[in-house]
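@channel sequence for tomorrow's demo:
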Amino acid sequence: MIVGVPKEIKRDEYRVGLLPVGVEELIRAGHQVLVEAGAGVGSGLADAEYARHGAELVATAEEVFGRAEMLIKVKEPQPTEVALLRRGQIVFTYFHLAADRQLTESLLASGCIAVAYETLSDDRGRLPLLTPMSEVAGRMSIQEGAKYLERPQMGRGILLGGVPGVEPAHITILGGGVVGANAARIAAGFGANIGLLDIDMDRLRYLDEIMPPNVTTLFSDRHTIREQLRRADLVIGAVLVPGAKAPHLIEREDLELMKPGSVIIDVAVDQGGCVATTRPTTHSNPTFVVDEVLHYCVANMPGAVGRTSTFALCNVTLPWALQIADRGLLCAADSLPPVARAINLYEGEVTNRAVAETFSLAYNPRFQK
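structure tokens (generated this afternoon):
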């Protein structure tokens, strides 16, 4: 199979879809790898490293898209990239289609095959290709929250851990999954007081056992959320419904409960956000203010720490890329249920139920396992 690795062109995106060692492994398995010149620079990976491991360096994205049978990326194809896609071409990347009808419809029109990292799930419901980026984003959310709570950044002027004689910040985390758990651990290390909310009681019991004493686990309902918003200096939106649009847990009128200068970090922005006032932002212009509440809604948070994120991502995506390349997509989907679950679009048809239901589109269950 001819595998292509284009340079990411989404604004402020510094990750790359394949490491040089991945090139070597694919070539050893008998495949050909095309890498666009400069694709790895944002992650500190020079073209020479890719060439040394056997990649064919090409000058333009047009050549990568034109020759590759499977594209390995990090972020969803941008409009100029969608125009280069062809029917039957495999695109293996993050898509988050339920948050973007226009992207979904344009990809359907292209006839490409969208194999989404974020819906590749094992038999226990775990998301191995989303987990490392969720770990990064969860940890970064506290790092960014600490910064934007500073007064020069339009925050309340709060130090997360306080000092002797002054109480620490109160942080509310909506969602106890990978993002929420990582955020809570980092926040606890800063010495903040944390309310960690979820609707899964088994998950809450587990988190209650492993978290430090300054993390309080709470069942998430409308009353508790509003009570937490009154207390919160920093709110982390960490809700995930795999493949589907995130539910709004904070409505516009709820912002009135929050203190002026408090901060919301909506990590769920990739799936539409769990705050009604969320809109995607970039690392170049990451924040905006609504009703005196600072919103940070960067849609590719891990991209800011490109080297860490690239290595973490490629560690988990390479084995699946090899399976698809070695077996062919249809054989891989037939024998490996996680691959089947990752196929969101197939040659003009929606094959992911959550995406189809989000946009009231016809659903083809051909890959349902």
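heads up for whoever presents: The chain has two domains: 2-127+305-359, 131-304.
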